[in-house]
Amino acid sequence: MSPPKETMTLHQRILGEIEGRIVSGEWPPGHRIPFEVDLADQYDCSRMTVNKVMTQLAKAGLIERRKRSGSFVSQPQAQSAVLEIHDIKAEVLSLNLPYSYTMTKRLIRKSRAEDLRRLELPTASQLVEIACVHYAGKRPFCLEDRLISLVTVPEAAEADFDAIAPGAWLINQVPWSAAENMIRAMAADADAAKGLDIDTGTACLVVERRTWSGAGPITHVRLTYPGDRHVLVARFAPEQAR
Fold first, then answer.
1. Same domain, yes or no, for 102 and 169?
2. Does the pLDDT of residue 39 top 70, yes or no?
3. Which of 87, 94, 142, 199 is the most buried (most CB within 10 A)?
4. Is 168 helix (H, G, I), strand (E, B) or coil?
C-alpha cells in the first residue's frame, strides 16, 4: 500500500506519479519521458532528486535511458518456453502490441556445405532460404533467418510467405516429430544492428532451432532478439526416485 499523499516525500510522489503513468498505459512503451530538467521545473525540485527517481525506474526495468536521446518507457519483455515451438506473432500480441512482419529475402537454391551442417542434410539438395523482420508496433522485435528443406517440405516452394510468416506456416502445415534448440548470447554485428535498429555491439539473444519429421529434416531457423526484450522460460519437475 502506498503511503498517504500527505506523508509522501517529494521523491516518492514523483516516483509514484511517473510509475503510475507507465503501468496504466498512459505512457506506452517507447514513450519519451520528459527531460530531467523539465521534470525538475514541473515539480519545483532539484535535478538530483529527479535523477534519483529516474535511476530507480531504470533499475526496475520500467524505463531505458539512452545517451543523448533521453529516457523512454521500456518495451515489456516477451517470454517464450524453451521446450516449445512458439509463434512469434503470439509473443508480440501477448505484449498488447500490434504485430507485423516483412520478408526481406526469399531464394530457392541448392544447399551449400554450411547448409548441410545447419539442416543435417545427408546430401546436397534444394532448399528455400528466407529472411524476415518481425515487428512489435513500429519497433523491430526479432530477426528470422530460415532454411527449409524442399526434399521434406516440397510445398514450401509455392507457399505464400508474403501473407503468412514461414514459422506459422510450418506449424500449421507440417507435423514435426523432433526438435532441437540452441540458445546463446551474441553482440549485434552491423547487419543485426541495422535490422533491429540497435547499436552495433548491443547484447542479443539468439535461438537456433532445428526440426525433423519422419521424412527427414524440415527447417533450421535462427531468431535474433535484442537481449533486453526477450526472456526464455523452462519449466520442469524432478525425476521421481527410482
1. yes
2. yes
3. 142
4. helix
